[in-house]
Amino acid sequence: MQRRDLFRQLSLSAAWLAWQQLFGKAAQAQAPAESADRAEPWQEKAEVFTLGVASGEPRPDSVVLWTRLAPQPERADGGMPERAVAVQWEVALDARFTQVVQSGSVLAEPRRAHSVHLDVMGLQPGRDYHYRFLAGGQRSPVGRTRTAPESGADVSRLRVALASCQHFEAGHFAVHREIAAADVDLVLFVGDYLYASSLPGHSVVRRHRHRFPDDPSRYTLADYRLHHAAYRRDADLRACHAAHPWLLIWDDNEVLNDHAGLSEPDARLDREAFVRLRTAAYQAYFEHLPISPTRAPVGPDMALQGRYAWGKLAELWLLDTRQFRSEHVCGGEWQGPLNGRLLWNCAAANSDERSVLGAPQEAWLARGLAGSASAWKLVAQTGQVTPSGLDLFGQRVLYGDGWSAFPAARRRLIEAIVQPRVPDVVLLGGDVHRHVAGRIRRNPDDPQSPVVASEIVTTSLTSRGLSEFISARVKASNPDLLHLRSDERGYVLLDITPERIVSDFRATAHPVRAASTLRTQVRYRIDRGVAGPRRMA
Predict the structure, then answer these.
(1) Any idea what DSSP says for residue 201?
(2) 338 C-beta neighbours (distance < 10 Å), count
(3) Which of 23, 95, 335, 347 has the most other CB atoms within 10 Å of its CB?
């Protein structure tokens, strides 16, 4: 890190701590009048807002606000009564709440674990806001959020923190501590917000507060609620949610590792049991994250994909790569060092009918890209589209859960860019636990085919990656992987301007310790009108 970057990070960290100490206390002193009866036991607990506050889905005139009442987060019901509880809320222009612009009351209901999801409308575009809640005579921490610029506005900059894969047991959330203090407009989280699985004893940095049963057929809504609450009790994760608005998509581990659509990913599950499991997982996911109440799950289904604009500078598509995915094929012949399904000579994988997104979502994305007039088209999904197969003993070995094992689906995704000649498309991904800068060719299997898009993939926040030996073999087998490092954990800081996107691959050595600091592993730029990342000195 250059000296000026170091001073800037230290200044931002100091400012964040001072802001919390000064304005957090000021906000408590000027909180709205109490409206709840103090007599009930849950109101006598030391803290009601143990899981913090969060915001998300920023649009020019609205943002989603979230909290959950949980005075006893180690209980599935949070220690709350079996009745609805009134929660007051305020939105202000300043952290002292001397300029309140909106306020009101909402019911936190037991059927949603006493979580609150507010679509606050009528806000001004491109502005910072502060918000807070009051319930049970107690005041929440103060959160800061930001609306998107006005539609069609000339915008000079967008800064995004791209993150993924935060296994609690694999390390501390030092990444979130840095992002919380950073000057970013939003956090883009592309899957694996939590893990139901536990790590072997020798790999554990810290234990899950709650552990799932060994048999997935016994997973319940209570298990998912307890697991989410345990993750949200991490101070760095709470700070990151309170500091910035988030956009989120899920991958597999929010439900069960390697699940695809409604196919059962475990032999101990039948179809009916997996539907129950996915229903519980989706509900708990919604209950603990800043997602619009209009997108609340209905049984095992939930509308997760979305489209967001940042003035004329960028449009961002969030893709759901799990809910409509075709089931895995060929059985995954070998559970090897890639810790997943490896495929070779699998003709079934080439079927034109196989999809990662499902036909309706594929068509929705294609229409959106073709009609976009934004400078940058950012497509967020949960994998790596750049080829990642491994050449071994004359065989092309594919990771059966990745895009390379869905060649027809990948071809349709690329054709949605090529056919209408959509310029300046950047695919943003996660899941694979490695930093990647890649080129997307019209024909990914032909090294002479023209480059039509760029890809940036973030490494995991804590989850372990591939060995350096296997990473080197993967990179050698795929020349369009310009950068690949799987030995370090971190995130990607995207600095987007009308002329270029600069990607800082922030990283720290594994395992992630509580006091870890990050550095820039490498920096790539994508110039407007030129497909493909280029390494910066």
Answers:
(1) G
(2) 20
(3) 95
